[in-house]
Amino acid sequence: MLTGKRFHIFTLLGFRVNLDLSWFLIAILISWSLATGYFPAVIEGLAPGMAWTLGIAGALGLFASIILHEFSHAMVARQFGMPISDITLFIFGGVAELKDEPTNARAEFLVAVAGPLASYVLAGAFYLAALALSGAAEPSPLVVLLSYLALLNLVLATFNLLPAFPLDGGRMLRAAVWGWTGNLMRATRTAATMGRLLGGLLLALGLVSVIGGNFVGGMWQALIGFFIISAARASESQMAARIGFEGLTAGQLMARPAISVPAEISLAELVDDYFYRHFHKAYPVLRAGKVIGCVHVRDASAYPRADWAGRTVADILPEAGRAAVIASDTPVWEALKTMNALQVSRLAVADDGVLAGILTMRDLMTYLSLRETFGPGHSAGPGHGRAPAPTSA
User: Fold this and answer.
1) Mean pLDDT (whole number) for 364-369
2) Are the CB atoms for 330 and 247 separated by under 8 Å?
3) Three-state SS across the chain?
4) pLDDT tens digits for 9-32?
5) How are beta strands 84-90 and 93-98 bridged, if at all?
6) How far apart are CA 220 and CA 30, in angstroms?
7) Edge-to-edge strand order for the sheet containing 325-326?
8) Annotated catalytic sites, by residue?
9) 197-232: per-residue pLDDT in tens?
10) What is the C-alpha to C-alpha distance for residues 124 and 26, in angstroms, rounded to an integer?
């Protein structure tokens, strides 16, 4: 089943395994490079058909190895009560999608180290299998394939142990600094800095390789470096946001009063009297004084103008819009995760169905900026949501 850019392939032990569409590109490139370069160079006189068979088998072996690597992370995380629902393979490898940060340094370390350990075990298993099947003077294609998979897992494990975020070694470094200092933000900054340094080094080496004539290898190395830099920065920003919102609830940072939309008005009235009049991208929807969701500009744009007069706001309200409602005592960090999951920038805040205010992504980012400038605020408290500016989006 295709969801967004991800293709769900199977579910095992409660974990959904997905392929990002970008992974197909790397699978094709790996199969091609193995079939036209590596295996013909190792096995003299290899027929083209067998070379492509080995190339595809090598790519599938990489696929299986990465899944087992990520499954190891997921299984250990489950033991510590850290929810992981999806494992996704993409162009730069795989990721077990943690829904929350580890609760302590020990959990962080054990979850991180599980992946490389699994890869080392796989490397040993493939090596022993190749050793058991070898015997002739010339290695068979199967032995060469198993030897390649042993080397592949050895490299995968060793590279992941580099102490740079977001690699497993970077998470282990973060766990060590966290356990030593007791400061998760400091630990994250240390590991993210190492990630940026490693990414910068790979980026520079890749560009040198491109200049030296190795265009494909150099570009690939540079792309990995760029990915590591981006992921390290994103992880540091995410942790800063998590700490910045610690202890705050939606009711403390919401804007109020919030402009609401009656569920019974037509789509034409919604566009003319709300989107064009107040210039917000989303509005809470009320029916009989109770919030039933949030309507977004993309919900309205999905219908042709000819249908606007005959449809009400309630008619076009999608499931995601009905879920875009939170209570005022919801922690801001949980609200932010809800925004990301629903891909919205606004959430209605309601208690017992009664609209209390609106929580917007722009306001949350503004709060973080102010906090960085002035330090934590002291005026916000339960029920102290601010009144919005007339043109806030």
Assistant:
1) 88
2) no
3) CEECCEEEEEEECCEEEEEEHHHHHHHHHHHHHHHHHHHHHHCCCCCHHHHHHHHHHHHHHHHHHHHHHHHHHHHHHHHCCCCEEEEEEECCEEEEEECCCCCCHHHHHHHHHHHHHHHHHHHHHHHHHHHHHCCCCCCCHHHHHHHHHHHHHHHHHHHHCCCCCCCHHHHHHHHHHHHHHCCHHHHHHHHHHHHHHHHHHHHHHHHHHHHCCCHHHHHHHHHHHHHHHHHHHHHHHHHHHHHHCCCCEHHHHCECCCCCEECCCEHHHHHHHHHHHHCCCEEEEEECCEEEEEEEHHHHHCCCHHHCCCCEHHHHCCHHHHHCEECCCCEHHHHHHHHHHHCCCEEEEEECCEEEEEEEHHHHHHHHHHHHHHCCCCCCCCCCCECCCCCCC
4) 777 777 777 777 777 888 888 888
5) antiparallel
6) 12
7) 325-326, 346-351, 354-360
8) 70
9) 988 998 898 888 888 887 777 787 888 888 888 888
10) 25
Token output for 344: 């919205």
Q: Which long-range contacts (CB under 8 A, 24 or more apart) does 204-210 make?
A: none
Q: How far apart are CA 93 and CA 205, in angstroms?
A: 20
Q: Read off φ and ψ for residue 17, nearest 5 degrees.
A: -105, 125
Question: What are residue 258's phi and psi, to 5 degrees?
Answer: -105, 140
Name the token pair of 327: 């209570």
